[in-house]
Amino acid sequence: MSEKGISTLGREGLILRLKEAQSKFGYVPQEVMAELAQSLEIPINEVYGVASFYSFLSTRPLGRNVIRICRSLPCYLKGAQTVIEAVEKELGIKPGETTPDGRFSFQLANCIGLCDQAPAMLINQDAHVELTPEKITQILRMYK
Amino acid sequence: MSEIRLIINGIKVKANRGATVLEAAQAAGIYIPTLCADPDLEPYGSCRLCVVEIEGMRGLPTACTTPATDNMVVHTETPAVNEVRRTVIDLLIADHPMDCLTCRKNQQCELQKVAAYLGITERRFPRTNRSFPVDTTNPFFDLDRNYCILCAKCVRTCHEVTGVGAIDLAYRGYTAKVATFGDKPFMESICKSCGECVVRCPVAALVPKETRQPTREVLTTCPYCGVGCQMYLGIRDGEIISVRGDRDNQVNMGRLCVKGRFGATEFIHHPERLSSPLVRRNGEFAEVSWEEALDEVAARLRRYQPEEIAILSSAKCTNEENYLLQKLGRAVLGTHNIDHCARLCHSPSVAGLATTFGSGAMTNSIGDIKDAACIFAIGTNTTEAHPVIGFEMKKAVRRGTKLIVANPREIELVRHADIWLRQRPGSDVALLMGMCRVIVDEGLFDAAFIAERCENFDALKSSLQAFDLDFVSRITGVPQEQIVAAARLYATSRPAAIFYAMGITQHSHGTDNVIATANLAMLTGNVGKPGSGINPLRGQNNVQGACDMGALPNVYPGYQAVTSEAVKEKFEAGWGCSLPPTKPGLAVTDVFEAAYNGQIKAMYIMGENPILSEPQAKHAEEALRRLEFLVVQDIFLSETARLAHIVLPGVTFAEKDGTFTNTERRVQRVRRAIAPIGNAKPDWWIICQIGKKMGSQGFNFAGPSQIMDEIARLTPSYGGISYRRLEKGGLQWPCPTKEHPGTPILHTQAFTRGKGQFMPLEFKPSMELPDDEYPLLLTTGRSLFHFHTGTMSRKVKGLNVFRGEELVEINPQDAEALGIADGDTVKVVSRRGEVTAKARLTQASPVGVVFMTFHFAESPTNQLTNPALDPVARIPELKVCAVRVEKNGSSG
Lengths: 144, 892
Hints:
The complex is a heterodimer. Chain A is of the alpha+beta class. Helices cover about 45% and strands about 10% of the residues of chain A. Chain A folds into 2 domains: about 10-55; about 65-140, Glutaredoxin (3-Layer(aba) Sandwich), CATH 3.40.30.10. Chain A has a 4-stranded mixed beta sheet, covered by helices on one side. Chain B contains 28 helices and 38 strands. In chain B, strand 9 (about 215-220) and strand 10 (about 230-235) form a beta hairpin.
């Protein structure tokens, strides 16, 4: 959508501000999206569209630790599915869910750029690579 | 616009420079499949169906995003192109429900059409499943995402066409979907339910709840506001079942609002429609024959002297009907006591613009909005009261037009504004004159225009001395720098257009307010040019026409003064009768006083509901009760009709022929779509019968077309208008001759009065301001979902879902001080009455100001309002009065 005038200026600042909110609150609360829409002078729904598009931005509250396992092709070929199942078994939740104690949220992500060390996952900012189902219990124990 | 030539599929084709390849092909009648292109939307290129081959160009460009150029050679049907198209459709139908036969969009579906065109007969890719719940919360349409093909037409429409932005594409990849903010149901979003997205959805994702297809359609004019949108009524078996906007006209170009699209049919077939004449016998209404009712009306009207009779005509009825009713008043009953609700809306526009310009109507056209470099919207909540003009304004802003909004309330337009001036209600003269002062002081005025086209500039300049920024800022509550910024932006953006509505006129100094806008426009040379002007937005579908037709106490049709002996003689000759003396009759606001005092004994009210619309409504109601004889002609037994002695059932816009004149002076056809319901009769027919029964020869008309011919003979500005010409589309008056094309812009060469006249002004406060006893200021207005006193819109169930009751909008700070929470029932009390309604806490209302509409008979807001009149226009001060708000149960 080509635009002239105010809107274009506002839109440029959007992702940065959403990332700030994500790191401050652990997710992007609706009140923050409303404030952003007002201050950047863009429709509130566009803020929502962007916030919901990026998997590293969340529009819902998440657990204290966020697990992101890659579901792209290289990881898949190297057995990511077994790792995913191991996490499910360990935590008792499916991708997209959060443990009842709020300790972990579990998500699947598209390529996280670690194909050379597949299968890989991120927990918060930490990369864990060359995973096997056996490694999972120990890794998860590091996060409280 | 220059033309280019290109070759498409070996055919030589002409196109306008700037057209896309798709537009060039469509103009030449060459079909290129597409699912995401729309003439109203910017090119998007998402569906990839319109791919073509262009010689000399690499790959397969999309026709919708590729500009056509001279000598371009395009092939739209090569094997490569069609293979890509088939794959696109294969992918789309991989997760599309294939239940075409039972689908609500069957045979209306664009996907179905394209698939058929490409000869697709099987699903090549294995079925993938989606299963979204259907959002059925909106009363008029559903969103079923299982059918969605993610073309984003709806999203783009909501941004580009309506400027609302209620939906967007959210999430990504397989999970991508159309969503409201927070992925909530439609009814919890900011969606205004205009249905523009529904119209453009190519599949069954966004579908109206009513899916029956009409067997025939009739083009007519929307019966709600003054925009005058052209729409097709769809008829099936005598019932109007659908409405769609007409894309081929300059007024709305297909767009409609929630009332027009979804609220213009239900009241037509409503069971409470009056279907037989009613006569009050022993206090009860009895159904009687037309013959009996009309005889009794004629006999009883005959008993009164001209000065004892008053007529209320109707801005909801056609030009022809207003013309006939004022003719009945003047030629048969012998009185100029005829008026209508324009008294309560734009009488100051007529008076103020007549003084300054010489004629009181919108100077420019709706189509001009896009040409304005700056729009100054003061005292108009355009997106609620004139939604399609609101669409046009927001679209202009998207394309770079500057917007200044002056409004005490934080209305939707504020979100789109460059500058928002939040003036105190009633301080507009100070604000406008303050802006004039800045423009004069800084030398930003158009000296050449003033010298050549205007007079009395020195008088204006000296009166501006009183409006220094200190004073203006103190009176208006607007910071000085904002006043300066607005003045500069308005004066330096050429052309600049002023839009206003009731926020300017409904004051005891309404005429001064209008004059102030005219001063500002003349000062900057913003009159008589495209994209400029003074644009009073008329409220009712035909309030412009009712004024034009002389349903006013001081003028015959075409604003020919009753005080002129020559005019009187002209109409005596034209109508073949003698006419009342050259003294104006009573304005409606004075009529109620006269009825209260017993001077007016009989009234004829057509299609108006003054019990809800008059200020100090209790008093107006008592005045009507004191009448010896009241005739009401209406489609429903309105609050006013309940007081009548005789009720005559008229018909809706869908059951008669006629014309409405919209806010931009465009005379447009209203066409009969169905026969009158029950025993109701067209209003023009009823008036003709009464005229004939009272012995007049001037009411022998075969139909509205003949009436218009008589109007044209006697009304210079309508002189060239005839039904034959209107078949080709509306005509904007003045249209003096059969050859005249109509007048989109007034005052282009000279003002109607010759020179534009600057008028010195002084600031006058509103008549009743808050004090210790009544500490809050009440201002009134409208909701998007209802119209006027709700006689029509409140009969529509879906509109009541959006807004079913009055809400007293109050600032949280005021509410807290009064111990009021959101949703509490409160009592609003003024010196004239009290009204109960629910409170809505909102920052949209400034501190110290409460806001109510007047749509709801259960909470008759006008029992509170102040009948103080503008001395010139006789309009009451509906926008400002003092009230106190009490939590229900407490004594305050």
